[in-house]
TrEMBL record:
Family (UniProt): Belongs to the UPF0145 family.
Protein name: Heavy metal-binding domain-containing protein
InterPro entries on file: UPF0145_dom_sf (IPR035439), UPF0145_YbjQ-like (IPR002765)
SUPFAM superfamilies per UniProt: YbjQ-like
Pfam families (UniProt xref): YbjQ_1
Length: 270
């Protein structure tokens, strides 16, 4: 079975790995044993480890030294690069005829090739519903989620299902404080209001963009939200605020609990 015409962004080696030739196909997964069992109990079969990569040159933007402001060029670059990695991971899941991807990890690493060059990688385990029910999004893409296998199981048992990994990014320049202001506050306990306002504003923008993504997919809520900060080797006053979580929707009023199943309490999947 050849996938090349349908999935032009996937390398040939990846296509070969993903081919489900009966008698030779072996699924791969980064799920722990406990997670694997719980995903099976939730009614899904792991199909394979899927991934997407984008090596991206991040442009330059001049900041006003004394002003709090979003670095819109950088915000867009960080978002676009992650979207490219996510879409290629979703293509690999499509090649496996998967319903969704669980345990998604988004990673950013900077390369020595240049100060503004970074690799964005998305990795997760593609799964398919055993009963043939489609769990794809309203845009006909596989659902994506960064929930662990345990959390995915509990979510399904509660009558909710993942829709998509949603995210919002805001790269923000926090204004420098002048020398006179620094001298005036020496030895005093006081709030640094411009800093507070800048960081507050940046986090709110990232959160709002994540919520807008969920609303666009007609989700009812977002679980497992992480709000991370990183300056990615930029100037110390330039910080990316990145919000990410799993958008969910209710699909049944009463879930059926698996009889006799004891949930492990000491296993986590980062």
């Amino acid at each position: 079975m050849k996938f090349m015409p349908e999935f032009p962004d996937i390398p040939q080696d990846a296509l070969t790995r993903l081919q489900q030739d009966s008698g030779h196909f072996v699924f791969t997964s980064d799920l722990s044993v406990n997670e694997f069992v719980l995903v099976e109990e939730a009614g899904f079969t792991p199909l394979g480890l899927v991934m997407g990569s984008s090596i991206y040159h991040i442009g330059y933007q001049q900041a006003n030294w004394t002003k709090n402001q979003e670095m819109t060029v950088l915000s867009q670059a960080m978002y676009n690069a992650r979207e490219l990695a996510m879409s290629r991971m979703e293509e690999e899941a499509d090649a496996l005829k998967a319903d969704g991807i669980i345990g998604v990890r988004l990673q950013v690493s900077h390369k020595e090739w240049g100060q503004h060059v970074a690799e964005f990688v998305a990795v997760g385990t593609a799964v398919r519903a055993k009963d043939g029910t489609s769990h794809r999004t309203i845009k006909n893409k596989p659902f994506t989620s960064d929930l662990s296998g345990q959390d995915f199981y509990l979510l399904m048992q509660a009558g909710y299902r993942p829709v998509s990994l949603v995210m919002g990014s805001c790269v923000y320049h926090v204004a420098h404080q002048g020398a006179l202001a620094s001298i005036r506050q020496m030895g005093q306990n006081r709030e640094l209001l411009p800093y507070t306002q800048g960081l507050y504003d940046a986090r709110e923008r990232a959160m709002e963009r994540m919520q807008l993504e969920a609303a666009d997919l007609q989700a009812q809520g977002i679980v497992g939200v992480h709000l991370d900060e990183n300056n990615h080797s930029w100037d110390s006053h330039i910080i990316e605020f990145f919000a990410v979580g799993t958008a969910v929707v209710k699909f049944q009023e009463t879930a059926i609990k698996a009889p006799g199943l004891v949930l492990p309490m000491n296993d986590t999947n980062g």
